Amino acid sequence: MITGIIIVLAVAVVDWIAVAKGWKKVEYLAKPWTMAALFLVLALVGRFSSLPLVFFGLGILFSLAGDVFLMFSDRWFIPGLLAFLLAHVAYIIGFNLPLPVVSPTWALVVALVLAFSAARLLRPIVAGLSVKGQRKLIAPVIVYGVVITLMLLSAMLTLFRADWPSAAAAGLVSVGAMLFFFSDVILAWNKFVAPIKNGRLMNMITYHLGQIALIVGVLIQFI
Q1: pTM for the model
Q2: Nearest 5°: CA angle at 178, between 67 and 18?
Q3: CB 216 within 8 Å of CB 5
Q4: Out of 7, 22, 81, 94, which residue is the most buried by the measure of CB atoms under 10 Å away?
Q5: Of the candidates 142, 141, 175, which has an alpha carbon nearest to the alpha carbon of residue 159?
Q6: Cβ atoms within 10 Å of 216's Cβ, excluding its own
Q7: What are the backbone angles phi and psi of residue 47, rounded to the nearest 5°?
Q8: Residue 7: how many CB atoms within 10 A of its CB?
């Protein structure tokens, strides 16, 4: 697994350099190949030996589709958003198989903190959509925000689950989901609220590191 993850990281770094330098042709290759390489690691190491691994594999494939859509013009934004929405749904299912047994108190505390934080971040993004005359995107973006928050909640609750005994696995999926969450916040903020210095580069770094950490944690848990 270590060799495979090093290869995934190497391809991701090529993509980061391409984004930083504005090398579009290199980015068009390196960006999708990063997720394709991560899928191969999951397939070769995990061998889809359990149902959760199947759903995490689907999540990677939907993410790959979203990457391809978002590389092109803005008219592909909705298909890209839908692809990533399905990726998060697949991850949510994967995290919740089997159905988790979690302390209601901890579940409520984590859920309230995430809900409050997500709402604070979503409010200016929705306002930015209105200002830019993109009102038709408000409902899809809100739905997406709810789903990605549920994905983050599902990941973080592994920290409190007896059936996730490895602190490394639970910690990695929690950090990975958090990075994935913030990669989307950076993308949306940069696109709809205000430009962020090196925003695209920050978006890709947090996205790739988040996906890698999440999948490594999943492999530690399920193999």
Answers
A1: 0.96
A2: 40
A3: yes
A4: 94
A5: 175
A6: 24
A7: 55, 20
A8: 15
